[in-house]
């Protein structure tokens, strides 16, 4: 388990002013999605904060590639290379978040760089899938998550989240299963 210092935010520190943000996010194949949701449930069952209790219809396991003031056609084009391997390898703690770190291979790093450039985002990136947010004491999560095995699968689709309307729209839809 790794501790990181979180420096990114959708709010200005010390202010309640929230800016409109569009994100480009990758979603996981069904097996890894179920695995992440299982960890969310495990945390909830242990009496800990978890994204299992976040009931907004857009809530699902995902990897955010970048955020920006607007979704650009270049950002949408940059995610056309899906599917890509997804490896969730270690639990990390940063700021008030508990997450499953994503081991980013060269293709994922290149996709992220292209999306970030297209969205004018030069922020550092910690590839992860969130497990719990607004956590006061991350140390209570360590015993519950210790020994969590890596999850392997694919990032299969991309979507964009609009923080003002709280809606998602597909950037690169999931391919139809082969017959």
What can you see in these coordinates?
The chain is 22% helix and 32% strand. With 179 residues, the chain is an alpha+beta fold. The chain has a single domain, classed as Cyclic Phosphodiesterase, Chain: A, CATH 3.90.1140.10. Strands 1, 2, 3, 4, 5, 6, 7 and 8 form an eight-stranded mixed β-sheet that branches. It is globular. Mean pLDDT is 84; it is low at 1-16.
The major β-sheet equals: 8 strands, mixed
CATH superfamily: Cyclic phosphodiesterase
- Tell me what the CATH architecture is: Alpha-Beta Complex
Overall structural domain count: 1
Topology order in helix (H) and strand (E) letters: EEHEHEEHEHEE
Number of strands: 8
CATH-defined topology: Cyclic Phosphodiesterase, Chain: A
Q: Can you identify the CATH class?
A: Alpha Beta
Radius of gyration from the alpha-carbon trace, in angstroms = 16 Å
First-to-last CA distance: 41 Å
Secondary structural class: alpha+beta
Q: What are the segments in which pLDDT stays under 50 over at least 5 consecutive residues?
A: 1-16
Mean pLDDT figure? 84
| Number of contiguous helices | 4
Shape: globular
Percentage of β-strand residues? 25-35%
Helix content: 10-25%
Q: Keyphrases for this structure?
A:
179 residues; alpha+beta; Cyclic Phosphodiesterase, Chain: A; 8 strands; 32% strand
